[in-house]
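User: Could you check the structure of this?
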Amino acid sequence: MNITHAIILGIVQGLTEFLPISSSGHLNVFPWIFNWEMLSEGMDVALHIGTLLALVIFFFKDWLKLIKAGYKKAVKKEDSKEGKIFWYLVIATIPAGILSLILDKVSEAIVGDDINFQMAIIGITLIVMGIILYIVDKKSKSDTNYENISLKQSVLIGASQAIAAAFPGVSRSGITMTVARALKVDRESAAKFSFMLAMPITLAAVIFDLSSFQFDLGLILGILASFIVGVIVIKFLLDYLKKGSFKVFAIYRVIFGLIILGLYFVR
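Assistant: Sure, the predicted structure tokens are below.
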């Protein structure tokens, strides 16, 4: 892939992977809009490696505490909030993985290989999920914080990731944060739990598709760009949601979705 395009897509991945606006949608739409070479599986894997590294670096200390506490809970029967959260994350990832494999096959059968039809689907899902995100966020209370998320909430939030895996434009972070808010989790905690859930499912996806990955300069720069921007965006969103809402992201989704649908009908 063109090096400039790879860097731009790396920036796009870093910006959109953690915001509730759909990274897969943007990574498919940008080449389509500008008539670039379409995103290869190898490049897609590379960009996700970058944002996976961003998660690892940003939450490194958190994961060390979770793993240590999870081990103590399982082996030494020592209870702690970190141990509880670790096993909730593990349990929540299992249905997400199973459902993702099933819904991915369903999505392939429905959407097919027609790139223009895929763009129409992305436009629609951006708009629909944007509206749902806005309504849910506005009406939901903030009764639960990160440390007090229950097993039921964890499983429901985790399982929702499968919908995003199957249909580009939904957004993995978007659907998990929306479901978390619907379950009365406060905004900052919804974002953090979404980020923690993202690490195991992204790692599994990267490992599964690693055979399509081949190093070249474009891929390396794409990884670097998505990593740097990803770290910045994680920090920004967690700080922003301490006082802000998801309204701005919902509005952006609707506007971008309408632009995509407009281009679809013009073309």
